[in-house]
Design goal:
722 residues; Ribosomal Protein S5, domain 2; Arc Repressor Mutant, subunit A; 5 domains; 6-stranded mixed β-sheet; metal-binding; cytoplasm
């Protein structure tokens, strides 16, 4: 058997950065396999699809997994088993980016299981692989016969020092004030996700246009590779059985009833119950002769009818399922400090969506370790999002956070992060959003509740951040409706759903999924402006609730004191084997963190007890203080000797107060004059440069009496002349 010769194409990212796409060398038994190479970065992507759908399959089972091999960066995993385990959050988020871009591109009647596996096999420390993952997946589909409708790609578009750049390096990203991952076909945008430091809506539109131009170059390269391989068509597949006569029966039976319920402005569960009643009546109307397939098809057609009727109602009547106008935000209710024990808390309710969010302030020891194959760093700010089943009135197994929870939490975290203080803020901050009720974007409720809770905790964020979920419904005749603050049902109905977070001044985060062809930038601009108005409406209510962050942390939150010391004193504070710093922490009940920053050391002292924190601060100050001759100190008598007293005048610094320096009077001993534990003021009068011993004086702080002056005898009434 002769081995096939690999085929490859390349394209330029700009600035001479060439990207190579190759197929035919690795993983040749997959339906499609490619490697993407830029610099030392190599990604292997494979796609495999079953030839037939599973019996009774009613949904499209697509799975996308992106994984980074630690060997790609010459590292061994730090887990107990020393092998790659479940996907970490970064890998899950990258998998979601690819999944969301690919899923709408499959035919609606294609129900065969598809698996996409994307693996980083060689890592380049400066190249961010997540921006190349979707290109790899799409190229693997392009060289296969799996019936995906279009070729796609994805780029990172960042603004660095005022200039937009496609797929910048890791180092360049440190100076970026906009960071978006954008996916598109040749004609249409498909997915947007990212963050910005309060960019304008027009800045976002410009980024989308520039990214789309770069994506078209990548799509052309994939088309060239496809032609080189010789793929000319797509495989046939078994389509689900259809029954047009039954579809007509469903429509005539249920259309008017569905419309009546849709117009009734019912609550989520009332509306759902009414729709289920009609569906059950429909199934009963089919008669006893109806088989399982007919019943299954009838339910499917009823779902399609419901989708069509509600969309038409919104487009024609300009009214929504809950009776709101298109641009109306649901009723808002919010409060801060509903929980007495957390360091900060807020309850945010918008319609039938509710988030109870808490903030916990920790020390640098609580920082979150974030690892990828190429990097390992710690984060001082992180957010966890929980979506228990009762929030939608359901019963489900309670397992670890799923991909949805990771994705929604990441969007909220990225949005709030834009307002967080920098490294000068010593606290580690953990935000936890527990969704107690959900009908419409709970991730946006998390952003709002998180902003309120951070201000309640006294975290010095300068502005509130809010978020709103938007929807878009379009029709072939050009008619469209932009919806503000969408319901869960409207999310399912829409052609685009997008979430925009930000302050009054600009956008902080975006997540957008587009399912419609030919969306014009003018419609996009209109949607973003409507989102801005909705965001401002929510922000006004948030500022009424708490207008600014609290000036101080809660009484039970850890206090934080900071001291900057010379770099040379860091070792003295820590002590041999950490002995000194451990003693300070034990004696004062504090947690102390020392970080070297340039030529200085930042000493951060944490304690829920203000007295303990101040005691530790003084202790550290004493260690780093340089005793100055002629300086006056508050001292504590440690021991009494025949020749004087040893006193501690700075933490861990003792000197001799000689008996001759206690008083101007001649003393035979110190009995009745000083005792251990006495607090006295002393003056440093000298330092022995040979021994380093300190000479202290108490008498130097009192005026010297004139011993030559005759003592004036006191005259009492007894010796007064009679």
């Amino acid at each position: 058997m002769m081995l096939t010769q690999p085929k490859s194409v390349s394209f330029d990212l700009g600035g001479g950065r060439e990207v190579f796409i190759e197929t035919g060398k690795l993983a040749r038994q997959a339906d499609g396999a490619v490697t993407i190479r830029q610099g030392k970065n190599i990604i292997l992507a494979t796609v495999v699809a079953n030839k037939e759908p599973k019996e009774g399959q009613s949904f499209f089972p697509l799975s996308v997994d992106y994984q980074e091999k630690f060997a790609s960066a010459g590292r061994i995993p730090g887990s107990f088993f020393k092998r790659e385990a479940r996907l970490n959050d970064y890998e899950v988020l990258t998998s979601r980016l690819v999944d969301r871009a690919l899923r709408p591109l499959f035919p609606e009647d294609y129900l065969c299981e598809v698996q996409v596996l994307i693996t980083l096999v060689s890592s380049d420390e400066e190249i961010l692989p997540d921006a190349l993952a979707c290109l790899a997946a799409s190229a693997a589909f392009a060289v296969s016969d799996i019936p995906i409708k279009e070729i796609i790609s994805e780029v990172r578009l960042a603004r660095i020092d005022g200039e937009f750049k496609v797929n910048p390096t890791r180092q360049e990203m440190e100076n970026a004030d906009m960071d978006f991952i954008i996916a598109a076909t040749e004609k249409n945008l498909m997915m947007v996700e990212g963050e910005a430091k309060e960019c304008s809506e027009e800045d976002l539109v410009k980024a989308l246009e520039l990214a789309h131009n770069a994506i078209r170059v990548q799509i052309k390269a994939q088309q060239q590779l496809r032609e080189l391989v010789g793929i000319t068509g797509k495989r046939d597949y078994t389509k689900p059985e259809e029954n047009e006569a039954l579809r007509d029966v469903v429509k005539s039976f249920a259309k008017d009833k569905v419309y009546a319920i849709a117009k009734s402005a019912l609550s989520k569960h009332e509306r759902s119950d009414k729709f289920h009643e009609i569906r059950d009546e429909l199934i009963d109307s089919l008669g006893e002769d109806a088989d399982d397939l007919q019943k299954q098809l009838a339910k499917k057609y009823f779902g399609e009818l419901e989708w069509e009727v509600v969309r038409t109602m919104i487009l024609e009547d300009r009214v929504r399922l809950d009776g709101r106008t298109l641009d109306q935000v649901r009723p808002l209710a919010m409060e801060v400090d509903p929980l007495p024990t957390p360091h900060g808390s807020a309850l945010f309710t918008r319609g039938e969506t509710q988030s109870l969010t808490t903030v916990t302030l920790g020390t640098p020891l609580d920082e979150l370790l974030i690892e990828t194959a190429a990097t390992s760093h710690e984060s001082k700010f992180f957010l966890h999002y929980n979506f228990p089943p009762f929030s939608t009135g359901e019963i489900k197994m309670m397992r670890g956070p799923g991909r949805r929870e990771v994705g929604h939490g990441n969007l909220a975290m990225r949005s709030l992060k834009q307002m967080m203080p920098g490294n000068e803020y010593a606290y580690t901050v953990r935000v936890v959003s527990d969704i107690l009720e959900s009908n419409g974007s709970s991730s946006m409720a998390t952003v709002c509740a998180g902003s309120l809770a951070l201000m309640d905790a006294g975290v010095p964020i300068p502005k509130h951040v809010s978020g709103v979920a938007m929807g878009l419904i379009t029709r072939e005749d050009g008619k469209y409706a932009i919806l503000t603050d969408i319901l869960g049902d409207e999310d399912h109905l829409g052609d685009m759903d997008f979430k925009v977070t930000g302050t009054r001044e600009g956008i902080c985060g975006v997540q957008m999924d587009i399912k419609v062809d030919g969306l014009s930038m003018e419609v996009m601009r209109e949607a973003l402006e409507q989102a801005r108005i909705g965001r401002l409406h929510i922000l006004d209510a948030m500022y009424e609730c708490i207008p600014a962050h609290r000036e101080d942390v809660k009484p039970h939150a850890p206090r934080m004191l900071k001291l900057i010391i010379d770099k040379e004193f860091i070792g003295a504070v820590i002590g041999p084997g950490g002995k000194i710093i451990q003693e300070i922490q034990k004696e004062t009940g504090t947690t102390i963190n020392i970080e070297e920053v340039g030529n200085f050391g930042e000493v951060s002292i944490f304690s829920s007890d203000k007295t303990g924190a101040e005691k530790a601060l003084q202790w550290v100050k004493g260690i780093v203080a340089v005793p100055q001759v002629d300086e006056v100190y508050e001292a504590t008598v440690k021991s009494i000797q025949p020749y004087g007293a040893f006193v501690e005048f700075l933490p861990k610094k003792e000197g001799l107060l000689h008996i001759s320096e206690v008083s101007w009077k001649r003393l035979e001993n110190l009995e009745g004059v000083l005792k251990e534990g006495d607090k006295i003021k002393v003056k440093l009068i000298g330092i022995d440069h040979k021994t380093g011993k300190f000479k202290l004086s108490r008498k130097a702080l009192t005026p010297k009496p004139d011993f030559n002056k005759p003592r004036q005898e006191s005259r009492s009434s007894d010796n007064q002349p009679q």
